[in-house]
Amino acid sequence: MEELLSVKYDVVSGDFIRGGEASSNLKKLLNQLGVRSDIVKRICVACYEAEMNIVIHSVGGYIEAKIYNDKIEITAYDYGPGIPNIELAMQEGYSTASDVAREMGFGGGMGLPNIKRSSDEFYIKSEVGKFTEIKIIIYFN
Amino acid sequence: MKVKDIVDALNLKVLAGGDGLDREVKGVYTCDLLSWVMSHGKQNNAWITVQIHPNIIAVATLLEFSCVIIPENIEVEEATLNKANDEKIPVLQSNLNAYEICIELNKLGV
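^ Those are the sequences you sent over. The predicted structure of the assembly is below.
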């Protein structure tokens, strides 16, 4: 399937002010492309959660979205510290967020489950001290 | 019902996002856990939250909320208000608590 366009946004660790901008920009783009609104919402939920995970938990990273005729592929990549136990991290309610992040309404342990629930395909891999990579695929139909 | 109707009826203070007062309001959502809001909030909801940091505007924009209502006269961070102005999301302040705001909105038929 031919790739229509690709965008990449840097995501800065601890930047709660700009956190969410990558998702907002992607949303505007998808609306311009005429993607159905319920699909856009699912993409927004998945992308926002992935973006905020990078802001809250990592040393920084990026969100890359590749848009095809029939689907979007989002990669959320960060440069560490990595997730020691992915199975545990995927459990709803489990979180390692700081107290500060929790006071701001984050850290409910819902991020990764929300991403998985919003996605048609969801892949996660991580290596402690190196990286975490999440791949999300959502179809337009 | 429009945001400005709620502002008038509940005597809310418009802190920012005055350009969005003509937005349509359909339903109310109140929650402070952002992931929960992301997965359950609906388009055109009026969102009541005690969170005051700029990321609430990202959530409100992504979900296309009609407005954000801050209860109990909580002061809102300036960066949040700037972002709300950019995105035309009204941020409204009330002296009532979240429960009382819900009651008043219910009386209005929202």
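Chain A has a mean pLDDT of 96. Residues 37-57 of chain A form the longest helix (21 residues).

Shout if you want it in another format.
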